[in-house]
Amino acid sequence: MSHNTFGHLFRVTTFGESHGVALGCVVDGCPPGIPIDAADIQAELDRRKPGQSRFTTQRREADEVRILSGVFADDRTGGVQLTTGTPIALEIANTDQRSKDYSEIRDSYRPGHADYAYDAKYGFRDYRGGGRSSARETAARVAAGAIARRVLPGEIIIQAALVQMGPHAIDRARWDWDEVARNPFFCPDATAAAFYEGYLDGIRKDGSSVGAVIEVVAEGVPPGLGAPIYGKLDADLAAAMMSINAVKGVEIGDGFASAALRGEDNADEMRSGNGGGPTFLANHAGGVLGGISTGQPIVCRFAVKPTSSILTPRMSVTRDNRDVDLVTKGRHDPCVGIRAVPVAEAMMACVLADHYLRHRGQVGKPG
Fold first, then answer.
1. How would you classify the pairing of strands 270-272 and 247-252?
2. Do residues 18 and 134 touch, judged by C-beta distance below 8 A?
3. What count of other Cβ atoms lies within 10 Å of the Cβ of residue 267?
4. First to last CA, the chain
5. What is the pLDDT of residue 360?
6. What is the CA 175 to chain-centroid distance, rounded?
7. Cα separation of 47 and 197, whole Å?
8. Dist. CA 321–CA 315, nearest whole Å
9. Which of 49, 76, 148, 223 has its CA 20 to 30 A from that of 280?
10. Are 252 and 234 in contact, with CB atoms under 8 Å apart?
């Protein structure tokens, strides 16, 4: 299997399977001299790990990270662990696999999953939790994203939130970033979060699942990141978000809503600013024009489909093309979009770190 690496200068390669011994990543291209220790990475992993509420899979994983290479500390660094500029290898052990839960589907394809597609391509698949197609692979991305945040200037703030569950969107007039950390849905609207509790309880008790929309915002990004045509910042962001398991749509700024606007409504008008650059009067473009950051907040949203593993019997076929009705057992998220929030932040951080280093290499420090 190829294509396990993304990025150009800040490159991330992930490895491991959902029910294997461990998963992890190798981060290549991280500059030397950046303070980083396991606690920095663990803080991000703890936000993504399963089993933290009744609204996520009850698989119990500590997701404890080990740094295997690429850092160094001694008396010359004051005891502070710094990156050396060499590849940083991170490992996260799997400790709560229940592979027997999947024995009944070893020869059958779960509808909505990648089972058939993997088998058609490789002639073989790891049926235990989906192997590489499992959302558990995203733990390695979150670990890499924690390093990417350290590469970026401190004024760049990356935050994500769940803004819609099923057909129920938040009220943006009640948006409060502080609220995201106060509820199990990473939702910025306290009223919507309270509604989601009862709503998702009903979905979960029915043995079903529901989709979600995640919004990720990066503030403090300097103008100039990205490149025209084939190195566009928004194109790389879209590809990064689309690579997250179960994502079926991505938009930047107003996205598809732009099609309903007139030109005078869509254009982000400008006036002279105090800092030498323009002041934008709107941000329909989501902080990127011509593939290059404008200095405005970068805004990206993506849609996550409902978890395909549900208790309702679904029609499918076996490897030898026999009809079968499947009920998928095991421990699954009734809304996998919830735990996609820290993954979204990680992917935004990795893309921005890559473009930051690319820009610095071509024209010098941004800003």
1. unpaired
2. yes
3. 13
4. 39
5. 94
6. 21
7. 18
8. 12
9. 148
10. yes
Record the tokens describing residue 256, joined without a space: 């598809």
The helix/strand count (H/E) of the chain reads as 7, 18
Per-residue DSSP letter, 318: B
Classified as helix, coil or strand, 347 is: helix
C-beta neighbour count of 135 within 10 angstroms: 23
Amino acid at 218: A
The answer to whether residues 314 and 118 touch, using CB atoms and an 8 Å cutoff, is no
Q: How far, in Å, CA of 312 to CA of 26, rounded?
A: 39
The sign of the dihedral angle between the CA atoms of 308, 309, 310, 311 is positive
40-75: per-residue pLDDT in tens?
Answer: 999 999 998 765 666 665 556 678 999 999 999 988
Q: Is the pLDDT of residue 109 over 90?
A: no
Give the residue among 278, 276, 275 at the shortest CA–CA distance from 267. Answer: 278
Q: In degrees rounded to 5, what are phi and psi of residue 166?
A: 60, -135
Q: Which helix (H) or strand (E) holds 68?
A: none
| pLDDT tens-digit map of 160-201 | 999 999 999 999 999 999 999 999 999 999 999 999 999 999
The span from the CA of 305 to the CA of 165, in Å, is 10
Q: List the structure tokens of 238.
A: 């879209």
Phi and psi torsions of 289, nearest 5°? -130, 130
Nearest to 147 by CA among 240, 63, 31, 50: 31
CB 189 within 8 A of CB 171: yes
C-alpha closest to that of 92 among 158, 34, 30, 44? 44
166 touches 211 (CB < 8 A): yes
With a threshold of 0.85, does the pTM exceed it? Answer: yes
Amino acid letter, residue 363 = V
Residues 323-345 have pLDDT tens digits of 988 877 666 788 999 999 999 99
Tokens representing residue 308 in the block: 């395909």
Give the pair of three-digit tokens for residue 62: 């500590």
Assign 367 a pLDDT band (cuts: 50, 70, 90): low
> Of 6, 154, 20, which Cα lies nearest the Cα of 92?
20
Give the DSSP letter of residue 119.
H
